[in-house]
């Protein structure tokens, strides 16, 4: 049944200062109402590149975001309160009761746990719900084209930023660069120049207890320089990591088939398949946006206006991955990091309440509730025309999407249906044809894929940092590292500068995190490499592979300060499996750890 436009705007938010009781209802997270007929897909979350081209939706979003900014900091549905769920100021949200003894509260964050994807799904949904309700209210104030404005408000959803799609790592100027943007404002819809709310959020008061330098900045900043955002540095950092992000995303979809490996960046025991987790890729994006600014620090990242575009895409990746792996969802884990909501060493699983997001006045959402995005009243463009109940057709359809959007160019060449050199380098060998690969490919149809596994305890440095990986000479000037031809990609630790007050951070201080930087494209481009075979690649990597560490703001870090750092070369054989246009790589055999390639160097592999 279609819900009326009037119903779209009805919800209540209550100031945090109120005493919550049985007679004071809390804000219930439902997602925006679905304006469409029952049995038809709900509105789509759009790519930000497409979203900004829709005049009405973009105009409504800008005005809605401004309204959320202007709401009082004690309002449950203000931008401030919604952002603070992710980190500081570490206060209860929406009447959620303290489950731990007084004085031990350290926030709601669930990074490096199996609940990372689903917890953030509902955080984004709560933001989307509030934003859409503002859009519905604002649409009622237009005096021309009223039906069109109401329809746009009903359909509006949180746009996503697909940083891994070729050419899309750098956000549009309307989001990161223009100080003024033109929108059609109420009541007459006249095009008007307004301040760009995507550039920064302005704090009404500085959050007490923030670690320096966040205790002095009155607005969110990106790559801060002289207390201003450096947009050129931001755009450069994103562009320099485009190829690495695309490769990491592709292999996340195709090589990770278990929930522990896919869901979070925690390194527990031996490595699984050589690909970076959803959380690990997300960590890199946070650090690249922040560059020493707010987005790169867990405690204040939620205040950067890009945050929800980032997390809508993280959620989109979760949806695509789930379509490829329909039998896999949240598995049992242990929450060593007690938080405001969870006691120390709690067992967490698919039925664990995802605090502080209520689905009624008395109950909370769980991961079990989060498997169906249609029920949550949104979808993504990639699911257009696909039957969400036909698992096989859905998997095939999304396989095509993953190939088209993220398949690295070197892999498309080296594992192509026709025999051809794997690169333009004359000395590279020819890879066998893999057309009609069987469901379980054999080794004679496989090619070696090489990567650098990075493991480290992120608590060893006071804040977020990156491990940069190179193949070839490393510039002596740190400012030139990411711009060097030898730069391959980075692994990021997304940390909390206010860790002393974060329960998650304190209790996970000794835990390691890990991710992978894929070397294949850089090997293929290097004329010194002869093939992807171990006999050629091992000595090449022993001579050429290097790494450096820098804080999120670019400050270089001596390797001696990271005694836990371990960079190890990993190789795995891949072959394609699947029908024409939908084939994805399948791992043949177990990964091979080439520890001796980097052992004996600071931050190199430890011999077992």
From TrEMBL:
Pfam families per the UniProt record, alphabetical = Tyrosinase, Tyrosinase_C
Extract one GO BP annotation from the record. Answer: melanin biosynthetic process
What does the record give as cofactor? Cu(2+)
Q: Which residues form the Tyrosinase copper-binding domain?
A: 111-128, 304-315
* Keyword match Oxidoreductase: yes
Q: Which GO-annotated molecular functions does the record name?
A: metal ion binding; tyrosinase activity
Q: What is the top-level taxon of the source organism?
A: Eukaryota
Instruction: Enumerate the PROSITE patterns for this protein.
Output: TYROSINASE_1, TYROSINASE_2
Listed under catalytic activity are:
L-tyrosine + O2 = L-dopaquinone + H2O; 2 L-dopa + O2 = 2 L-dopaquinone + 2 H2O
Report keywords, A-Z. Answer: Copper, Melanin biosynthesis, Metal-binding, Monooxygenase, Oxidoreductase
| EC class (word) | oxidoreductase
What EC number(s) does its UniProt record assign? 1.14.18.1
What family, per the record? Belongs to the tyrosinase family.
Q: What is this protein called?
A: tyrosinase
Provide the organism lineage as a comma list.
Eukaryota, Fungi, Dikarya, Basidiomycota, Agaricomycotina
